[in-house]
Amino acid sequence: MRTKPAAPGAIPLIAPFMAAAVLALPACSATNGDGTPDPSAAPPPSSGGSGSAPADDRGSGNGEGSASPQGPLAGTTVVVDPGHNGGNADAAEEIAEPVDAGHGSKACDTVGAETDDGYTEHAFNWDVAKRLRGVLEEDGAEVVFTRDDDEGVGPCITERAEIGNEADADAAISIHADGGPASGQGFHVIAPGDLEGYTDDIAERSQRLAVDVRAEFEENTGQQRADYIAEDGLDHRTDLGGLNLSDVPKVFLEAGNMSNPEDAADLSDPQWRGKAAKAVAAGISRYLQDEQSGEGE
Ligand SMILES: [Zn+2]
């Protein structure tokens, strides 16, 4: 099982650039004493290897693909928050640091769940988030991520919320898979519960977003509503800083229960994750289009 999704685009993209840089060396006198080109003078690969090439592609005029976006979601911004992070487990102290979650303090971040076979939630979240970004961008949305890779630490839940606020997102979603009781199966969507001064501004819109994501997820993945949560597949919580501190409509998806063998098999299957990402995109899309047309109000 792959725990580190590769960035297949990175190598071919960088290779021509590196080749050009090496070819150009003699002209910029980057040579050894004997006049031969010094390969070590080439720029370090890290300068172009951040893996966030698509996000950096803000250049104008020289790429047909980067013209102003078209599609049903053109003009909208969606913040996608892949829960947890791959470096959290090795940074126990740092992520345990308490932060103000709006309703008492919470840990900055947590490690997340994993299946019995060791497939981690952070890897699942990251994989689904990337697939989701692809679908949303194809539909014209601008997508902002809360973390750049799956090897880092955090960010804290406060910062994850802040990224959505700063982007003035039309919708934000935090992608997770649960670590519930092994006998419990299914997905659920978490919307902000009522918390005066915190969630009253986003509760109604978040609820509509939750209902749309639930509907599309249920229909398109075949996944059942979690049988260990509320019957309607929706949960409302006031203890999640990521929701309490959000000023934009936001929900958490718990795509399945990693502790349950049947759910674990689905969550570990790349094809299922592709389906899940499309389903989430459809839910967000339904919500955004309803809001735009005024139907949501
Ligand atoms: Zn989680």
Automatic annotation (TrEMBL):
Q: Where is the composition biased (Low complexity)?
A: 28-39
PANTHER family documented for this protein: N-ACETYLMURAMOYL-L-ALANINE AMIDASE (PTHR30404), N-ACETYLMURAMOYL-L-ALANINE AMIDASE AMIC (PTHR30404:SF0)
Chain intervals for the UniProt region annotation (Disordered):
28-90
The record's section on Pfam families has:
Amidase_3
Spell out the SMART domains in the cross-references. Answer: Ami_3
Protein name per Swiss-Prot or TrEMBL: MurNAc-LAA domain-containing protein
The stretch of residues making up the signal peptide is: 1-20
Top-level taxonomy = Bacteria, Bacillati, Actinomycetota, Actinomycetes, Streptosporangiales
Question: Which InterPro entries has this protein been placed in?
Answer: MurNAc-LAA_cat, N-acetylmuramoyl_amidase_3
CDD domains in the record: MurNAc-LAA
Residue span(s) of domain MurNAc-LAA: 161-285
Sorted alphabetically, the keyword list is: Hydrolase, Signal
Q: Does the keyword Transport apply?
A: no
Which organism's genome codes for this protein?
Streptomonospora halophila
Glycoprotein: present as a keyword of the record? no
